[in-house]
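Help wanted!
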Amino acid sequence: MAKYNPAKIEKKWQKYWESKKLYEAEDFSGGKKNFMLLVEFPYPSGDLHTGHWYAFAVPDIYGRYLRMNGFNVMYPIGFDAFGLPAENAAIKNNIHPRDWTKKNITKMSKQLRSMGAGFDWSRQVSTIDPEYYRWTQWIFIQLYKAGLAYRAETLVNWCPNDKTVLANEQVIDGKCDRCGSAVEQRNLSQWMFKITSFADRLIDDLNDLDWPESTKLAQKNWIGRSEGARIEFRITNQELRISVFTTRPDTIFGATYIVLAPEHPLVQNNELGITNYEEVAEYIKQTKKKTELQRQEDKEKTGVELKGLLAINPMTEKEIPIWIADYVLGHYGTGAIMAVPAHDERDYEFAKKFNLPIKEVVLNEEKFIGHANEKEGVLINSNQYDGMSSAEAKTKITQALKEKGMGELHKNYRLHDWVLSRQRYWGVPIPMIHCADCGYQSVEETELPIKLPPLKDFMPADDGRSPLAKAGKWLKVKCPKCGQPAERETDTMDTFVDSSWYFLRYTDPKNEKEFASKENMTKWLPLPLYFGGAEHNTMHLLYSRFITKALRSLNIVDFSEPFLGRRNHGFIMDKTTGHKMSKSKGEAVDPDVEVAKHGADAVRMYFAFMGPYDQNYNWNSEGLLGVRRFLDRVWNFINKQTTNKKQPTTESKEIKIKLNKSIKEIGEQIKQHKFNTGVSGLMKLLNELENESLLVVSCESFVKLLAPFAPHIAEELWQEVLGNGTSIHLEKWPEFDEALLMEESITLVVQVNGKVRDIIKVKRGLSEDEAKTSAMAQENVRKAIADKTVQRVIYILDKLINIVLE
RNA sequence: GCCCGAGUGGUGGAAUGGUUUACACGCACGACUUAAAAUCGUGUGCCGAAAGGCAUGUGGGUUCGAGUCCCACCUCGGGCACCA
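Answered by r_m:
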C-alpha cells in the first residue's frame, strides 16, 4: 500500500476537475436551486497569504456541501485590482502599476488553484479590465443623470502623503487608513455620491438582514442618525439667520449663546460687520492649521466672541452673544449650535471659561450623561412649558417654532456623501467632460469605456491635480453638447466604487450589452450569504448596499439589498508580532511551503478546525501536523478496508448507528458554518471505526463526509481506491436513517441533589418509574441518599434523573 | 465618555438550562528501535494516599440543576467620539 502523498495526488485532481469543468456553474440548471457563494474578492498584492487561505478555503467546505445537497453552486473569483497600494508598490519597484498588477494576478491565480477550492474560473472578473470598468463608468453615468452623483466643493480629507482626497470611511482616528499619515482638511471641489439620501433606508433595512449584530450596529453608528430640530436664530439688525441643529429643542430657554464653527460660511468674510473681525480671522487661521486630530486633542476650550453681533433666541426673544469656537465642527449638522451650558458638558466648560450665563431649564438630579444630559426631566424657567416632561416639550416647542417659521423637526446624520474622486493614476477614469461654456457633461455611453491612458509619469502631485492632467492627447476632447474644445475629468474613482457592484457582474461576466442581464441577475441575486472581513463593515458593505439601492431606485436591479446573509471571518495572526499576517509585513508562515509539506487538504482542514470561523487565531504548525496525522490515518484506514480479501457482507448495528449519527451531525454542523466541530466529528468517527471492518458502502459514506473538507484525498480514495468512475464531488451527501438513531442506547445521568452520582447506560424512552428504579439501584446513589427521604424526582427523558432530598 | 462582544485545562477550543473540559495540540510514561524520528498504546483540570471536595474572570441572585438566564463589578477586544 502506497503512503499518503498529497503532493502527488493534489495537482492531478486539480487538473482533472478543471478539465471536466466540474465547478463551472450553469446559469439555468433545471430544477436545481442556484447558490452563489461569495467571498470578498482579493486585492492582488502579490502573494497569497494565510489570510486568503482562511478566507477562501473554509467557505469552500460549505459550497461543496451545498453542491452535494442538490444546489447549483457558483463559487466565483476575481481581483479588485485598481488602487493606491498597487500604485505605491509600483513606484517603489520602478515598474508600471499595470505590469505589477498583472504579474501579481498571474501568480495569485496559480496559488489560488493550489487550494483545491471549487472556483468557477470561467467567470473571473478583474476590475482593471476595460470590459469590466466600462460598466463601472456606466453606473457612474446613470447615477449622475439621476442626480445621485454630483460635484461640489466641501471640506474633504486630504492625505498629504498619498496626495489624494479620501472618503470619511477611509480615515481611521484622523489618519489615512492606507499610510497612517495625519489627514488634513481641504476645501476642494470633488465628485460625490449621494449616499445620504439613502441614510434612513440604510439603517432601517438592516432589520431584515441575517448579519452579525455587531456589523449592523457598526453601520447604524456610522450613519449616526439623530432626531431633533433645526432652529433658526435671527441676528439683530440683519437679514441673515443662523440655523442650528439640536437633539434637545426642549432646552431652548436655556440657550444663552450661539457658537459657530470656524468653518462656518458667515464668518469667512466680514459682510456682517463684526467689529473685532481681525481677531476672528486670526482664530480661523489658527484653527485651519490644526489637523482634525490636533483639534480633538486640545482639551481646553478656545473661542472668540463676534463683537457687534447678537442673536435672538426665538423662544425668549432675548438677545444673546455669538461666538466662534473650534469645539463646534464645520462638517456636522449646520456647523452652528445653540449653547445650553446648564445641560451640555462642553457648553458648560466653555461658559465657565468665558463667563457666559448659565440658565437651568430642566429639573434633573443627574448631571451630564455622556456629553449632553439625556435623562428625561421636567422643564423649569421655560414660561408656559414649565412642568412639562422633556419628551412632551420637545414636540410642543418644535411645533411652536414651526408656527413662527423659526424651526422644524429635523433628522441629522453623521454620514456624509461619499467622496469618490481620487487624484491618483491607478483607477477608473471618471467619465465626465468639462466644457468652459456648458459645464460638466457626461460622456456618451457609446464611447465607453473611457480607457485609462498609458502614462509613463504617473506620480501624484501636491497641488491636488490628478496625474491624468498630464495626458495631453487623452485630455482634449470636444464638448458633447456644444462641440467646442473641452477637457476630460482627470480624477479617477475610489476603488470602492469598482468593488461595490462586482457581484452583479459574476452573474453574467461576458455580457457586452449590459453589465448583467436582468434574467441572469434574477437567477442568482440577491445573495443568500456573503463571507468577508469585519474591516469592511462601514466601507465595502455600506457602499455596496448604497449602489444596490441606487440601482434599484433607477429600476436597473429589482432588489434593494445585495447580501441577505453575512458572516465575518477572523484573521490569522502572527504569534510573535501579534499582527495580522500578511506578506507585506513579512509574515512568518508561507502557505505555499506548508502546502508543499502537508498538502492543501491538511492546510484547509486545519483552518476549519481551529475554532469558530469569526475569530482570530495564531498559526500553530503543530496544530496543522495533527490534521495531517488524521489524513494519514484516513488514508490507511480506507486502503486497509479495501485490501482486506474477506470483504464483510454484514456489519454491526453499532457501526451503522455511529455512521448515521455522524452523517446527521456533520451535515448540520456544516450547514451552521460550525466547521471546527465538523472536523472533530470526522475525527471522532474515525476513532470509533478505525479497528472495525466496514461494508464498502460505509467506506464510501465516510469518504463522502470527508469530501467537502479534504477534496483531493477524498477524490483519490473515491476513484482510485474505491474504484468509482466519476467525481465524488458530484455525489449526493449520504442519507441517514432517523429510526436507526432511535435504537441507540443512551447514557442517563443520575444526580442526587443536583450532583452527579452515577451514569447508567439505558435504552431510549424509559418511563420515570423505570428510570427511578434503575437509579436507586446504583450503589453510589444509595450511599448519597443514606437515611434521608426523597423529596421529589426530576426526570428529563433520555438525559437525566435528579433525586432531590428533603 | 457612549455602544457592542468576549473571559472555560499548559494551548486552540467543545457544550438545545442537564456528565464542564468533546476533538486536537502539548506533556508524561510505555511498546517498536542499537538509538532517534515516525507510528501505536496508556495517562493528563486542581487539592487529596483515598473517600471525597473544589473548579467555566469576581461577587450576588433565579432554579431541582447555571459556562449558559438576571444584577453589579473586573479584565481584554472592537465600533463611535468636542457628532450638539
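OP: Thanks! One thing I noticed: The mean pLDDT of chain A is 91.
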